[in-house]
Design goal:
2 domains, zinc ion binding, alpha+beta, 16% helix, Herpes Virus-1, 16-stranded mixed β-sheet, 8 helices, single chain, Znf_RING/FYVE/PHD
Length: 358
């Protein structure tokens, strides 16, 4: 496999003024990282090597917050308020997909249960005793589930909410306490965790470049850029205002036209991301393009943000024009700034004024 040469030179205001050069490209199925100084090239193919789960975010059952096990038959007066005891979770857990079961819940002649989705997956055979399932509904278990109120499964991570069993699943898909997916682009990384854990993971496992400060000046270099159809440059993480931001830059096809795109993602929830704005600028030969917007949360995948075109898009011909020279090498310098919006409490209109980072 021939390695493409891509160079990203990064400088951050407030730090050292000298350029630090490194070459980064994820192309096709593999990831290529070549860092200055050591000159080592690490190529990863197939599954991501760091597939471990952070202990805090493993798939184990959440602890009972009131201690001990609570039987579903205890104090049955109207609706049951119950802690997520292991026995209850096991009772309502599908043995095939391990997800919580919702009506219709099926059972075999021996009383073993499974969810309706997995019933077709096991070809109508009980996964426990291999007997034919038929069309028997476990109405008793459905009634038990209907009477339960359970804490959110992210209770160990701080969610205080309690929901009826059948409302719990919908809440958990958007719970603010659910862990985040790794924001790294260019590989399929299954790691999840809170923000501090993911920052350490990006730095230690993905060798992502970390910067402090909210202004930046990056130079992206690629020889033979017309040969690159889809390429993702190394992610860069910025720390400012006590938060973390991810800067992405890549080449891809927009319809029939090859383009380059730069955009910023916020390492946190969407509501908090709205408190910040950023600008990007690229230019050369007396011309420039600018972009200003709100960073997207890493709750939105890298691909979703890219496909929505929510960022600075540079046509290939314009990018080569900005690069100067013989237009055969990409040399783009992208500058940017992140700022926090502050509400002016002295006005009735609630006008937002930017808080620029010095």
């Amino acid at each position: 496999m021939e390695l493409d040469s891509i160079e990203c030179i990064s400088t951050v205001d407030g730090g050292a003024n000298e350029d630090r050069e490194f070459r980064n490209l994820h192309h096709g199925g593999g990831n290529i990282h070549s860092h200055h100084g050591g000159g080592n090239i690490h190529s990863h193919h197939g599954h991501h090597p760091f597939s471990h789960q952070h202990p805090q975010f493993s798939a184990s059952k959440p602890p009972n917050p009131i201690g001990g096990n609570v039987s579903p038959a205890t104090n049955i007066v109207g609706t049951i308020a119950i802690a997520p005891a292991t026995s209850v979770h096991e009772l309502l857990e599908c043995p095939v997909c391990t997800n919580s079961m919702y009506p219709p819940i099926h059972q075999c002649h021996n009383g073993h249960t499974l969810c309706s989705t997995c019933k077709t997956r096991v070809h109508n055979r009980c996964p426990t005793c291999r007997q034919e399932l038929g069309d028997i509904r476990c109405l008793a278990l459905e009634k038990v589930a209907e009477s339960l109120e359970l804490p959110c499964k992210y209770y160990p991570l701080g969610c205080p909410e309690i929901f009826p069993y059948y409302s719990k699943l919908k809440h958990e898909t958007s719970c603010n306490f659910r862990p985040y997916n790794c924001p790294y682009a260019g590989s399929e990384c299954s790691i999840v965790g809170d923000i501090p854990f993911l920052v350490s993971h990006l730095r230690d496992d993905h060798k992502v470049d970390m910067h402090t400060g909210c202004t930046f000046n990056h130079r992206y270099v690629k020889s033979n850029p017309r040969e690159v159809e889809n390429a993702t440059w190394m992610l860069t993480v910025f720390h400012c205002f006590g938060q973390y931001f991810c800067l992405h830059f890549e080449a891809f096809q927009l319809g029939m036209a090859p383009v380059y795109m730069a955009f910023l993602r916020f390492m946190g929830d969407e509501a908090d991301a709205r408190n910040y704005s950023y600008s990007l600028e690229v230019g050369g030969n007396g011309r420039k393009l600018t972009w200003e917007g709100t960073p997207r949360s890493i709750r939105d995948s890298h691909r979703k943000v890219r496909d929505s075109h929510d960022g600075l898009i540079i046509q290939r011909n314009m990018a080569l024009f900005f690069s100067g020279g013989d237009r055969k090498e990409l040399k783009l310098r992208i500058t940017g700034r992140i700022w926090k919006e502050q509400q002016n409490n002295n006005t009735d209109e609630g006008v937002f004024i930017p808080n620029l980072c010095s």
